[in-house]
Amino acid sequence: MDFIKVYLISRIVKKYRILKDVLSHDGFFFLNESVNNIDRIGKGCLFKKDIITPLDWRKIEGKDLLKILNQIKSKEFYFLKEIEGRVYKTRPKNVTR
Predict the structure, then answer these.
(1) Cα dist. 53→47, 48, 63, 77 in Å?
(2) From CA 64, how far away is CA 62, in angstroms rounded?
(3) Of residues 78, 85, 81, the one with CA closest to residue 95
(4) Which of 19, 58, 63, 90 is the most exposed place for a label (fewest CB within 10 A)?
C-alpha cells in the first residue's frame, strides 16, 4: 500500500470520527452515490452494498478512496435517526470542522 492510499484512509477515518462526535451518531453514514458498490462507512470501516462484513482497506483503489473522501467532505451522505419510535433519513446541515 502506497503512502497516498494510507493518507486517504487516515483522512476518511478522521472525518468519520469527527462527524460521528459532532452529529452524536454512532451508526452508519450512507453515501448518496455508491462508489464501486461501496455505500456506507461505519466504525471506521467501509462496507459494500448488502454485505455486512467490512472491506479490506488494501483492496480499495485510490481513486475510489478519493471519491469517498470528497463525498464525506461535501456532506453528500445521510444517516438513519430514530425519533419517537420512527426512523428518519437525516442529512447533516452545518457541520464545522
Answers:
(1) 7, 8, 22, 20
(2) 5
(3) 78
(4) 58
Nearest to 29 by CA among 18, 94, 7, 1: 18
Distance between CA atoms of residues 30 and 69, nearest Å: 13
**Mind listing the pLDDT tens digit for each residue in 71-90?**
999 999 999 988 899 999 99
Give me 66's grid cell. Answer: 478519493
pLDDT digits (tens, 9 = 90+) for 36-62: 999 999 988 999 999 999 999 999 999
pTM above 0.85, yes or no: yes
Q: Which three cell numbers stand for residue 83?
A: 425519533
